[in-house]
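Q: I'm building a small set of examples for a reading group on sequence design. Run inverse folding on the following structure and report the sequence directly after it, with nothing in between.
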């Protein structure tokens, strides 16, 4: 899963992303068991909540989503590399073209290769780390997308 978040919806970027995505699937039919999720939620109430009252850093983002490729049984290293190379660039271009050149990503859709600042927000990390120390002093939850 290759997650992303968008800070704006730039139609030319979305059209370009869709075209590249479909062309990739057509050119690689053995890798076509895939989907692209693009979520859009209303932000009216969210925008009224004071940013300092929440640990979530991306309150102004307008869309979240991910690309997922369900690779075939017996997948080769070349197929994996083909998908990784393609989606890494596609995701970067999509985020940059839609107002997120920093590559920040919705935490639930993070791949695990992002920096903690890209997942949780630089301004939010100190508070999250204090809460983590308080509620998980033994470090039981230090694995997936850890920010310790």
């Amino acid at each position: 899963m290759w997650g992303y978040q968008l800070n704006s919806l730039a139609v030319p970027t979305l059209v370009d992303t869709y075209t590249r995505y479909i062309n990739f699937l057509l050119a690689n039919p053995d890798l076509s068991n895939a989907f692209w999720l693009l979520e859009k939620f209303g932000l009216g109430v969210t925008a009224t909540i004071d940013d300092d009252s929440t640990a979530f850093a991306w309150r102004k983002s307008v869309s979240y989503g991910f690309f997922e490729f369900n690779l075939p049984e017996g997948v080769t290293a070349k197929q994996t590399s083909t998908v990784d190379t393609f989606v890494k660039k596609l995701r970067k271009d999509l985020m940059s073209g839609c107002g997120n050149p920093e590559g920040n990503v919705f935490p639930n859709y993070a791949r695990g290769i992002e920096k903690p600042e890209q997942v949780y927000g630089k301004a939010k990390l100190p508070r999250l780390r204090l809460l983590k120390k308080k509620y998980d002093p033994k470090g039981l939850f230090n694995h997936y997308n850890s920010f310790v």
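The helical segments are 11-27, 44-48, 77-97, 116-120, 125-135.
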